[in-house]
Amino acid sequence: MVFGNAPRALRPYICSSCAKSLKLRSRKFATAASPDIYDVACVGGGPAGLSLLTALRSSKATSHLRLALIESQDLDRVRKWNLPPDQYSNRASSLTPSSQAFLSQIGAWPHIDTSRVQPYHHMRVWDGLSSTARITFDSPTPEPAIAHMIENQNLTRALLARLDSLEPISLLDKTSVREIHLGPPPSPLTPEPTYLNLSSYPHVTLSSNQTIAARLLIGADGPNSAVRTFAGIETRGYDYNRDGVVATLKLPSSFAHHPSSPRGVTAYQRFLPSGPIALLALPGPYASLVWTTTPSQSALLKTLSPEDFTAMVNAAFRLSAVDLNYMFTLPSNQLSEFQWRDSVHPSTASEAKGEIPHLISSVQQGSIASFPLRLRHASSYTTSRIALIGDAAHTIHPLAGQGLNMGLSDSKALAEAIEYAVCHGADIGDEMGCLDRYKGEVWWGNQRLLGAVDKLHWLYSVGSGPVVGVRKWGLRAVDVMGDLGVKGWLMRQAGGL
Amino acid sequence: MAHTLASTRLFNLPASFRFTCVNLARTFSVLNRPPPHYAGHVPLNVFERGAVAAGSAIMSLLNPRRGDLIAALGETTATPYFIYRLRDVMLSSPTGRRILRDRPRITSQTMSVTKLRAMAENTVGRAYVDWLDREGVSPDTRDSVKYIDDEECAYVMQRYRESHDFYHALTGLPVFVEGEVALKAFEFANTLLPMTGLSIFAVTRMKPAERSRFWRTYLPWALSNGLKSKEVINVYWEEQLERDIDDLRAELGLERPPDLRERRKAMKEQRKAAKEKREKMGGLMAD
Lengths: 497, 287
Hints:
Chain A: Residues 38-241, 363-418 form the FAD-binding domain. Helices cover 39% and strands 23% of the residues of chain A. Chain A is α+β, with helices and mostly antiparallel strands and 497 residues long. Chain B has helices at 2-11, 15-20, 22-26, 46-62, 67-78, 82-91, 94-102, 113-117, 124-135, 151-171, 177-191, 194-198, 208-228, 237-240, 245-252, 260-281. In chain B, α6 crosses α10 and α11 packs parallel to α13.
């Protein structure tokens, strides 16, 4: 500004052409000092962030927006992700039909390697304390499936491939957020009409020392969101004191989820007192494990030999809670315990009926991992020029497999709200003009889902007493009422159709 | 065998009649019994089980020496829940699991009485054989379990039954009604098997002096020891024979009750002395 004003004071002493060139230079300087301004800057390149940017780019109304993605990981690693067909990532998710429809709508589905995606049509859910209490879900027709199992990396790679195929956006990868602050307050000493008042714009200073400003800053940066902290949005919830143990499992090679008849593919979940264990089919003789259990049990599982770990997984779907608790007290040799117990109470009959999964034969080396489970819900998803999506807004217990789907549904709703605002000439960073629409669309639905899943967790963590009896009758009642449309309703709720 | 005969007879009936019975024949009935789950198993339906339980309860109360009826009562009242609970108790303990894995049986073959007699004084084996000799019973006096449907639970019942004499040896309680009822009360608190609890009704058969001794001394002992001591079903008796019995009692957290035979003897002598005194004094002047 000093340089900008100086020529004016000196004008009588400088010729007009020189004054012009000086002015021009000073203008240039002013532009360089102000930050790079984007319409939408998204922090976090996970499925939620990538799908939002892809949705914005692929929609006619929003394709002209200036977009930036800030991601601390190297995106080339995402692009180059490639596993041989006999290996699967341990992070796999169940994609509901509505999520799948969204991915098709934004053009990402064709980029997915479908040879690594497994649809399933049946679900068997039962109570670990009363084996007669079980519920079966069967999709009435082969299409659509109840859901598709997909590796998270397969999904992010496809989203990135789709994004790369569109008009380029600023991909600031290998870059982390150093600081977020608001722009400087407007100064009364700036008479220039072109001066931009950026005082309400969030400015993100990056690890590369670059600063960008955004009309709308998206927090898609996970449970410990820096954007959420900057926005001062509170989260409610607590830690479950449970770990989610994940692994990639292999079934006998002869058995491959009946590849000839995809109708035979079933997802299994058993509710044990420590938490549910789920086996979800991947293509071929592979399956993905999600086992919710106490931190001490999860620590033990990670120390076991592959044979004993395999035995524990087989035991968790077959043996009583008493046997399992005992096997968790042993430092090793779970295999022999399992073999003995399975010989006393053979599970072959219920296996033949498809009530329980096939015996798994091994676990993929290095695929056993665990993460702590939390319930968190942001009290709001938006403030002025800020919106939260995905895990930054909510973290959920994995028992219903809804975490990823909630993130995608956030992206869809936010992209629609932005599109609406653009079409109607509103400011996309304005709460009333745009963001309230997004929040109103998804917050209550997510709150309901988080609450329902949380209650299921507590209902099934009760180990004895009248609650066990009541829930047994409750589950049976729901199963019997299947013909009255109750199950169809539940499936529609879970599938988001 | 009666049921096979009955079902053969059913299939000899004219077809038209047979088809009307299809529903009946499909379900569990006297005419259509499922195959046994293990050798000697007699599958019963709910009504039959109830009838056997009620009948054996009444008859064994009238004649407490009928061990077979007490056994039938034990088996028919153990399901649902109780025998499974006891099995789970065993499955939660390393020793209990070993017992269920090995399934040892206590018979005169596996428990050689002569070998036990040669053991040192105050060992578990010696106490057991001394108790057998004192009470004049043998390890072979136990029936096989037949009314419990689950094969493993049937073994648990069998094991309880065969260990019963070891519980006698451990507590020193004798076999006549008074000692038996005290031990059953202890077992009820310890194993929760309903038959052991129902057996306490046998107090109605006791003499007033015995009854008051039971209420005052033996029932409180049985309940407190049964609850506070470890589960006796999880003792691998075959491995404990050489062990000092007081050591084992201490490990289980069990106190020995007052010796019932001694007490009865003392009471009897007291009564006898009083009677002699009365006679000597000439009737009315007794006290």
